[in-house]
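Support reply, case 0932

Customer input (verbatim):
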Amino acid sequence: MTMLFCDSFDHYTTIAQKWTTTGPPTKTITSGSTVIFGFAFRRVSAFHATAAQVLCSLREGATDHIYIETVPGTATIRVMRGGAVALVTLSTTFTTNVWYYVEVKANIHDTTGSIATRVNGADNGSFAGDTRNAGTGIVDTLQIGTTAFSPSDDMTIVAAATRFGAAGLRYNANDYATDMHFDDLYVCNSAGTVNNDFLGDVRIEALYPNGVGNYAQWTPSAGANWQNVDETTPNDETDYNISGTVNQIDTYAFTNLTSTAGSVAAVQANLHARKDDAGTRQIAPQYRSAAVDAVGATKTLSTSWTQYNDVRETDPSAAAWTIASVNAAEFGAKVIA
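Our regenerated output:
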């Protein structure tokens, strides 16, 4: 697998529902030394005249290897190495209230490291040399923003920040009076044979349950199983499906993609779940397409409502996803333990 994570920011209302927020929003990734990531970006106001603002960073634990920041007094951004070492300034001038798709491919190494950048699919500058800032040279965390800001004060999921869909991420750096929007984010590594390089300007689309699936083995709190999980944003205890029986499966029909042409890089299942008793309880995403079933990675539950993400780059028949196969697929959950 090379697609590690993606986010449309449409299907939840607070950063903490999907990202770790003990500081700025972070997502744990398993990447090794090479990471490719992209995001839609729009600046709503001017960048600060004298202070650089960190947009996002690739980290090893608490160590920043690479981060992207604004260039003070300009309308440009640059890639930095941890320790405030400038590596490459992107050639694009970012006009206010215009969406751009920014991509960075970073290989972390003391001497043979490299940075490649693109904006809207066009090369925007590169670097070769030292890209490692201490540590062992791996990347295990993607962070949005900087430790100088509080996610509760400075980052919100709002409709005004969307490029496509229902919502996007607003990064309102209050201390610097700067307003920026993010949407359609992906993260890949260089392993495998697909999704191991720039994906280009992509759209991340959230789909929701809208009908009965092949399996309805979990017990609904009320009504039909699919109706308890069809909310745009999770409602926790309001309605739900429950099971304590190993191998029981729930699957649901889903809304169709709005896109009618193009390719599908991957599908990411997002399970919002918790356990309500002692001991280890585990579930896994269930995929079903053309009467073929597949089970995703096992997720160990906590007693708190948590989103568990699982990326699948092929359909249950091991063929590349297409718009038609996504539209015909069912998704759900299976009790593992």
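We compared this against your earlier run and they match. Two observations from our side: The chain has two domains: 3-189, 209-335. The mean pLDDT is 94. Please reopen the case if you see a mismatch on your end.
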